[in-house]
Specification:
This protein has 2 domains: 105 residues, no CATH class; 68 residues, Arc Repressor Mutant, subunit A. It is 76% helix and 0% strand. The chain contains 7 helices and no strands.
């Protein structure tokens, strides 16, 4: 026995009806995630555009509501990640600005100590295995989460934890801060 799937009429009326039925609920859900009504509306409208241009819409109208929801939530998550990255970059720029301002008020002796300390850390990082160095730089310089590092390097979260832990132990030892 062959199951028959419902096909959408060529005029897109089923999708239009779905959108009309789901617009308010999806906009509220996106707004709750994003805390910005205009951005939530943009996400829902972009989701509809993607649904309308998708090849999936013509295959199965019954699954269109779930597909539309997943598009909305994926777009909202993407915007949240983008915001997080922008916030992190802005924070890093502010920290560097504060460090430069602080550096301007340091004594020559403090400058020398800081340069020496920076050189020691750079030298200690250079001798680490590449993967450990990558994990430490991504974690402590770029302030990425373990999941973000895993994605960036194409390794598991557990591997990120292992490489970071080993690297930090080696750095403590080489910088004379005791055994790990």
């Amino acid at each position: 026995m062959r199951l028959q799937r419902h096909r959408e009429p060529e005029d897109g009326s089923a999708i239009t009806e779905l959108f009309a039925d789901q617009y308010v609920a999806l906009t509220r859900a996106a707004w709750l995630m994003l805390d910005d009504r205009a951005e939530a509306e943009d996400v829902v409208q972009e989701a509809l555009t993607r649904l309308l241009t998708s090849r999936r819409k013509s295959r199965d109208v019954e699954n269109a509501p779930a597909y539309l929801r997943s598009i909305v939530f994926n777009l909202a998550r993407s915007r949240l990640r983008r915001r997080s990255t922008e916030h992190r970059r802005a924070s890093t720029v502010a920290q560097r600005h504060m460090a430069l301002h602080s550096a301007a008020t340091r004594s020559p002796e403090e400058h020398a100590v800081q340069r020496f300390s920076d050189a020691l850390v750079a030298d200690a990082l250079r001798v680490l295995p590449a993967r450990q160095r990558e994990c430490v730089v991504l974690r402590y310089y770029l302030e990425l989460s373990e999941a973000e590092i895993a994605r960036a390097l194409g390794i598991s979260k557990g591997s990120v934890k292992t490489h970071t832990s080993r690297a930090m132990g080696a750095l403590r030892t080489s910088l004379g801060e005791g055994e790990p």
